[in-house]
Amino acid sequence: MLATAPLLAARGVSKSFFGNPVLRDVSIALQPGRVHALLGENGAGKSTLINLLSGALRPDGGAIEVDGRPVPRMSPAYAQQAGIAVVQQELSLTASLSIAENIGLGAYPRRFGLLDYPELAVRARAACDLVGLHEPLSMPVGQLSLGRRQMVEIAKALYRRPRVLILDEPTSSLSANETKVLTDLLERLRGEGIAILYISHRLNEVMALCQHVTVLKDGTCTADRTLEGTDARGLVRLMVGRDPGDLFPHWQPSASAANAISVRNFSAGLMRDVDLDIRTGEVLGIGGLVGQGQEDLLLGLYGAIPARTASAIVKGASGLPSGVPKANALGLAYVPADRKREGLHLIHSIITNMMLPTFARLPALKLRSRRAERETARGLAAQLGIKGDLDRPAQALSGGNQQKVALAKWMPHDPLVLLLNDPTRGVDVETKREIYMMLRNFAAAGKAVVLLSSDTPELVHLCDRVAVVREGHIVAMLKRGALSEEAIVSAAMGAEQRKVAA
Ligand SMILES: Nc1ncnc2c1ncn2[C@@H]1O[C@H](COP(=O)(O)OP(=O)(O)OP(=O)(O)O)[C@@H](O)[C@H]1O
């Protein structure tokens, strides 16, 4: 029997940016009815390979094939015609357009040359239903949370009825429920003969969903094999080229009785009537289903959105910071979840981004020592595994490496409280380990970390306490001995809602 031709393949492709090779002689073949994992550390070249497969970039050498035939001039338009749809890691939606308009963009149904709104509504609704997106189609995408926007992005790909579906870290901003909806859907699409390419840093998902894996390391392919007979540790070994250590550090509790921040009857955004003490020396987790108000808690404490409180003590002083500069001056630092929009100035260099909070602290006339900056930035880059020239614009970094810069930039600032909004989203397993170590060391030095995370194991293994938020209230405060994934999830979903003094 003849083997089926892959629906989409790359044969010995290579790609360089400004003379730096990013992919070397890489091949991958996507077969119908198979979920194919593409793994590799941050910056390994995964997104670049996707861009070649989908025609967003042209290879310098090698070929892209559709149905076994080379495509000399692969382009996004050709890819769309050939039924190749990509769900990008960084969302490509337009905030001011509605859900339906975003989903149909570039492929609107037409009738007598005019946009056929009723048909668009029917088809967009069908795509939304597939991913469990029940918001009104007329809602502007800008009003949706990151997780829901991700679902719109997936619906947009499904609207095009693809034969090949490429997903770049689709679950990194999804809740557990949304992830389940997506994985069930992918399982079904696979059954219908669609070829799926799945990039993820979440290895348990990969093990559960995929049948085949390609591993990239520094732009070369180090494995192309079935997933049978391997486990998550085996995958990490393939990615990093050595035996992995434990993901979570062993740590001793270092929380003191002193509070870095203490608020009573605090309300901000969706959060209502919160009593919370954040102790020096602790990592305090914030868990719960996505969009329950957790982000508003962080932003309110940081002075970035209006907040009301009966009493607040921040670093021994009375009152909340009245804005971000005040918060920074008090030693509060915030790392946002959406690094592209809020975390970095993408057109500026990596060094500039790393040094930005430090510039803000310098008196206007004080000269900056460029050499000292460079040394500090190099030290941070080495610590977090950011390779290459630090004078490149931040937009030339891979997604995971951008996230690392968004975190690293605060370190020279020596903050007292780090407010982190999903800091390991899209970060590879080795760097996660570094970040975890960094956070525990930070707490051990008598500082406080507030870690809002969608990664429940991270909350369980890293935190002294976890505040679980539901519908704008802290409904449980779980302490180390009582911390488990089940405890967090059941508190997050629990029917009973009560105010917890924390
Ligand atoms: N437009 C560009 N200009 C210059 N360099 C780039 C560009 N796009 C990507 N690179 C570089 O190519 C390398 C591979 O990046 P890529 O985004 O493909 O990695 P990745 O494996 O997807 O990483 P991540 O897991 O962090 O998303 C990185 O070193 C990145 O800095």
TrEMBL record:
SMART domains: AAA. Coiled coil: none annotated. Residues 8-243, 255-496 form the ABC transporter domain. Pfam families: ABC_tran. Keywords: ATP-binding, Cell membrane, Membrane, Nucleotide-binding, Repeat, Sugar transport, Translocase, Transport. SUPFAM superfamilies: P-loop containing nucleoside triphosphate hydrolases. GO terms for molecular function: ATP binding; ATP hydrolysis activity. PANTHER family: CARBOHYDRATE TRANSPORT ATP-BINDING PROTEIN MG119-RELATED, D-ALLOSE IMPORT ATP-BINDING PROTEIN ALSA-RELATED. Belongs to the ABC transporter superfamily. This is Ribose transport system ATP-binding protein.
